[in-house]
Amino acid sequence: MDVEGCDSSVDEFLTCLAKSPPPHAIIENIHYTTLPPKGYKSFIIEESAIKENNTTMICADIATCPDCLKELFDPGDHRYHYPFINCTNCGPRFTIVKDIPYDRANTTMSDFRMCHDCSSEYHDPKNRRFHAQPNACPVCGPQLMLLNNEGFAVQTQDPISTVCTLLHDGKIFAVKGLGGYHIACDALNSKSVFLLRKRKYREDKPFAVMMENIETVNKFCFVNAKEETLLFSRQRPIVLSKKKISCTMPHDIAPDNLYLGVMLPYTPLHHLIIRESGLPLVMTSGNVSDEPIAYKDNESLERLKGIADYFLVHDRDIFMRCDDSVVKVVEDKAMIIRRSRGYAPFPLRL
C-alpha cells in the first residue's frame, strides 16, 4: 500500500489503520518504509501481479451483513429478494476461490460478467462494493433453479415460494449453500424429521436446526451471552445450546440429548427461505451418514436423490467444500468442535 501526504496525515493514517481497521480485517503487523513522493492524484487498486510461489491468506466466508440484509428486504432496492447479494463486508470467499491472488478471475464468479451497474459499484472507491469480487445482481449474477430428485426442472416463477409451500407439506430438500449442500425440512414436523433420519441412515446423531432469530432460539433453548455472541458472529457456527424442558422440537431432532445444535441464517438464501416459510428448519449436511458433504452439482444429485424430494440449486460453482462449524461454550469460552465454514482457512495461532 502506497500512502502519500504530509507527515502528520500519514502518521494519523497509520494510527487509524491499526486502531480502526476495515470490517473483518485482520492486521497482524504493520511495516512501513519512507519513499520519495510520486504525486498520486487519486486512490486506485492496481491489477494484481502474478508471482511464482505467491502466498497470502484467503478470507473465510462471511455471514450476510446488516447493510445487505436491509437491501435484501427493501422492495425499492434492485437487489430486493436477490439470494446472492453481497458486498466487501460479507458473502462467499474461501469456498469460491480457485487460486490467488483473490481476484474475480480466480473465483467461481469468473463466469458471471458484471453488468454496468455492478461494474460501476465495483470501481467506485466510495461504494460499499468497491472491489467486492463476488459482486452481482439479478441482471448479471447467479440464479436459482428448483429440480425434482430426478434432476428435471420444476416449472415455477418463484422457486423460494414454491420451496416454502413444499416445506409446509412435509417435503425434504437438498439446498445448495456456500460450501456444500444442506438437507432441509420443517424441524417441527415429526414425520419429516423421522423420514429424513431414516433416509440418511442416521440412527441418533443430532440434526442442526436453523432458526430465524434469537427470539426463536430462546423459545427452545437456554442461551447465555457468550452463545448469543457466537450465534451472531461473522462465522455463524452451529452452537450447542441446552434445551429447555418446554422444548417442543420432535424427539428425533436430537434423540436423548440435552443439547440442540442451533444456528442463525448466514446467507441471503437462508434469510429468504426462513422468513417466508416462518419455520425453524433442520439444516443437516448433505450426505449419507459419515460421508463427506456433497458439493459438486451432478455428484450431489446422484448422492442425495435418495434423501431429498427436491433440489434447490444455483449456477455459482462451489470450489472448496466447507461444512458448518460447530461450537460449544465451556466455562464461558468457545470450544470449537468442528472448525470449518467461517473459520477456515485462517490458521490456528499457538
Question: Can you tell me about this structure?
Answer:
The chain is an alpha+beta fold and 350 residues long. The chain has a domain at 144-338: Alpha-Beta Complex (DHBP synthase), CATH 3.90.870.10. The protein contains nine helices and eleven strands. The chain has helices spanning 7-19, 66-72, 116-122, 159-168, 190-199, 214-220, 225-232, 268-277, 297-304; strands at 144-148, 173-176, 181-186, 208-210, 221-222, 238-243, 259-263, 281-285, 310-314, 326-330, 333-338. Strands 1, 2, 3, 4, 5, 6, 7, 8, 9, 10 and 11 form an eleven-stranded mixed sheet that branches. Helix 4 (159-168) crosses helix 8 (268-277). The longest helix is centred in the N-terminal third of the chain and has 13 residues, at 7-19. The chain is globular and about 70 Å long. It starts with 6 loop residues before the first helix and ends in a 12-residue tail after the last strand.
CATH architectural group of the domain at 144-338: Alpha-Beta Complex
Ends apart, CA distance between termini:
29 Å
Shape: globular
Flag low-confidence runs.
none
The helix-and-strand class reads alpha+beta
SSE order, as H and E? Answer: HHHEHEEHEHEHEEHEHEEE
Total strands: the figure is 11
What proportion strand? 5-15%
Average pLDDT, all residues: 93
